[in-house]
Write a structure and sequence with these properties.
Number of helices: 3
Largest sheet: 5 strands, antiparallel
Order of helices and strands: HEEEHEEH
Helix content: 25-40%
Strand order of the largest sheet: 1-2-3-5-4
Structural class: alpha+beta
Distance between the termini: 38 Å
């Protein structure tokens, strides 16, 4: 089985525009960005999706995402930012290595991220609450 592209980037076999790295994570410029300044945060250890991240990786992910988001806002001056993370092909995951997208947003930038709103009944919501309550 061939190595995934993000593992090859982590190992330095494929060049990338690295903006941050530590023992667990690498933050790189997206090679095919949705917007100027689109960054990907990926674990250095191969984890296919969120379900394969370990506790140390999950604990450090959001503080790192916040640090990168603040840098994007301060340097690019954008009024908004999307955090997007897909798990599985049906959810739009293209590369089977966990990665978090940070997409800077500006007025009329042409980026479209939209779902179709549902209209569940209170009974539907109660059922889901019962199934998912932790």
């Amino acid at each position: 089985m061939s190595k995934c592209i993000f593992c090859s980037i982590v190992e330095g076999q494929i060049p990338a525009y690295i903006i941050y790295q530590d023992d667990l994570y690498l933050a790189i410029m997206d090679r095919y960005p949705s917007a100027k300044g689109h960054v990907l945060i990926l674990p250095k250890r191969h984890a296919a999706d969120i379900y394969e991240l370990n506790e140390a990786e999950t604990a450090s992910l959001m503080p790192l995402a916040k640090k990168v988001a603040e840098k994007i806002r301060s340097k690019l001056g954008v009024p908004g930012l999307n955090l997007i993370q897909n798990n599985g092909k049906v959810a739009g995951q293209v590369i089977d290595h966990f990665h978090l997208h940070l997409i800077p947003r500006d007025e009329d930038d042409g980026v479209v991220i939209k779902g179709v709103p549902q209209n569940p009944t209170p009974k539907d919501l109660e059922l889901m609450q019962g199934l998912l309550k932790i």
